Amino acid sequence: MPVTVAFRYDAADPYAVRMAVHTEDAAPVEWVFARELLIEGLSRPAGIADVQVWPVPRRRRHLEAGRGAVNIRISSQHGTTVLTVQATSLHPFLDRTLGTVAAGAEDALPQIDAALASWLVLKGPDDGAT
């Protein structure tokens, strides 16, 4: 069955990528998984749980060059499917994500939860205690 796969990245969640799978017959389904899993899967098998990624080159020498295709296996309680995505379409997407947040720099981003918590802490009325 033909499907459309769209990837999204948000620096507010720097470790994750979102993959929306669209078919003609159903509403889009979104999967969220580690950006590193997708990067690693371009050159070797990666993942051991609900999402697995591995390269499928057209010719052996393309494996080292990062060309060919990438299989993405997604599993849920409703079933399993394998999607094949051209590696050449993933490279520009991943390059943009790495340009936004470099690998290894994910923790350097401002901690949104801590910032929100500090903004929400309100000082109580002055009770006269010193």
Automatic annotation (TrEMBL):
<comment type="similarity">
    <text>Belongs to the SsgA family.</text>
</comment>
<dbReference type="GO" id="GO:0030428">
    <property type="term" value="C:cell septum"/>
</dbReference>
<protein>
    <recommendedName>
        <fullName>SsgA family sporulation/cell division regulator</fullName>
    </recommendedName>
</protein>
<keyword id="KW-0717">Septation</keyword>
<keyword id="KW-0614">Plasmid</keyword>
<dbReference type="GO" id="GO:0030435">
    <property type="term" value="P:sporulation resulting in formation of a cellular spore"/>
</dbReference>
<keyword id="KW-0132">Cell division</keyword>
<keyword id="KW-0131">Cell cycle</keyword>
<dbReference type="InterPro" id="IPR006776">
    <property type="entry name" value="SsgB"/>
</dbReference>
<dbReference type="GO" id="GO:0000917">
    <property type="term" value="P:division septum assembly"/>
</dbReference>
<dbReference type="Pfam" id="PF04686">
    <property type="entry name" value="SsgA"/>
</dbReference>
<dbReference type="InterPro" id="IPR038658">
    <property type="entry name" value="SsgB_sf"/>
</dbReference>
<keyword id="KW-0749">Sporulation</keyword>
